[in-house]
Design brief:
alpha+beta, 6-stranded antiparallel beta sheet, 5-stranded mixed beta sheet, 17 strands, about 25% strand
Length: about 375
């Protein structure tokens, strides 16, 4: 973990401790790396303490005990900066999940409603499940933020849509554990299955940095996404720089115009970043990063026959039905997105893909990647050096 990230966590924990040991809010000097007055209401969630803090105009007005996701498989709660109920349509007084056979009252969504703030779980008859209620204050959800019924109702009625949300800290049981750098194909596939959910992108347009961070973790290098982004050169040529004027804005403006300068980067920039961090941490003798032009068939051959192959970063159009194949004079493809190719195929011989965008259907299965052609089938392959 970087020194900045450790310091941030320490300062936040010190504030939390002061808040929880009986000092009044007026007596506590809030030391925070976040802009607590960025919107009228700002919400922060400390996963380490399992607490939710609500600020109004920069002043803390409520503290709530919560339960975040269990830090395993796809149940971990994502960290980063988000917007609560960005669409204004992701909130309600009741839901019931037939998948989990549980419901909850007073839900408010974030990240497109994939994750929610909501009450402790209830039966279909809206009766609190006592066994789940007793877990409040410990990680126990499928990724959502659970609150008491009283707190969930208060949150639902008081925190407006569009409020800024910061989730930070390390969930108990999720502490970084150093491990030998992964150099075997099967180990890489297993590691991705069990750890990918900790490396989702934390900004709208940070998919490249998220996958760089993902692979660095496989190499036993812990680095945070913002530090990776800070080191990438900025400019307007995706072959040499990371092109992005507003990383938390989309690729179209309010009137629908294409924002070409909110884009991303092509293989040489990502390759340079990977090699920089590997060299800085003395791991460059273990891995070889190659920029290659490979067909889908050639990628399958790597998965099937190359034991040194640990996966690849591939360039695709993220939402082809939305964007379509539109390319500008700088060689930039509208909807540019990167994904991590699993080094092994599934049981049917199809590709397995890990997407840095937060979703619950990972890994995804593909027979082919037709939108790779827009990027001339360019990939970054990652191999163990012999």
């Amino acid at each position: 973990m970087t020194a900045i990230k450790r310091l941030t966590g320490l300062l936040l924990t010190l504030f939390v401790y002061a808040a929880l040991t009986g000092q009044s809010n007026r007596d506590v000097k809030i030391i925070s790396p976040f802009n607590l007055a960025e919107t009228e209401y700002v919400v922060t969630v400390d996963l380490s303490q399992q607490r939710v803090f609500v600020y109004k105009e920069g002043e803390m007005i409520r503290t709530m005990v919560c339960s975040s996701g269990i830090p395993t498989a796809d149940n971990a709660t994502p960290t980063g900066r988000f917007i609560i109920d960005k669409s204004g349509k992701k909130r309600g007084e009741w839901f019931f999940s037939k998948t989990f056979h549980e419901g909850a009252e007073y839900w408010v969504g974030f990240i497109g409603g994939i994750y929610l703030f909501h009450s402790v779980p209830m039966t279909e008859d809206r009766v609190v499940i006592h066994e789940q209620e007793t877990l409040l204050g410990r990680p126990s959800s499928h990724g959502c933020i659970r609150l008491s019924v009283e707190d969930a109702q208060w949150f639902y009625e008081n925190v407006p849509s569009g409020s800024i949300l910061h989730i930070y800290g390390i969930t108990p049981g999720e502490e970084w554990l150093p491990h030998p750098p992964i150099t075997e194909k099967k180990d890489a596939a297993d590691w991705l299955t069990h750890n990918h959910q900790s490396y989702y992108q934390q900004h709208v347009l940070s998919c490249e940095a998220a996958l760089i961070r993902l692979f660095l973790a496989m190499a036993d290098i812990e680095e945070d996404e913002d530090t990776i982004l800070d080191r990438m050169p900025k400019g307007f040529d995706p072959e040499t720089t990371f092109v992005c004027t507003n990383i938390d804005q989309g690729r179209r403006g309010k009137d629908g115009e294409i924002l070409w300068d909110n884009y991303g980067a092509h293989p040489p920039v990502v390759k340079d970043s990977l090699e920089y961090w590997l060299s800085l941490n003395g791991k460059d003798d273990l891995y070889e990063i190659r920029e290659e032009i490979l067909s889908d068939g050639e990628l399958k051959d790597l998965c099937l026959h190359d034991e040194s192959f640990l996966g690849a970063i591939i360039w695709v159009i993220g939402h082809p039905t939305r964007w379509g194949p539109k390319i500008n004079e700088r060689g930039m493809v509208l909807g540019e997105h990167v994904r991590y190719l699993n080094p092994e195929l599934d049981d049917s011989g199809d590709f397995l893909i890990w997407d840095p965008e937060i979703s619950t259907d990972q890994p995804r299965h593909y027979t082919e990647f037709p939108t790779r052609a827009a990027f001339e089938n360019r990939v970054l392959t990652i191999r163990t050096r012999e």
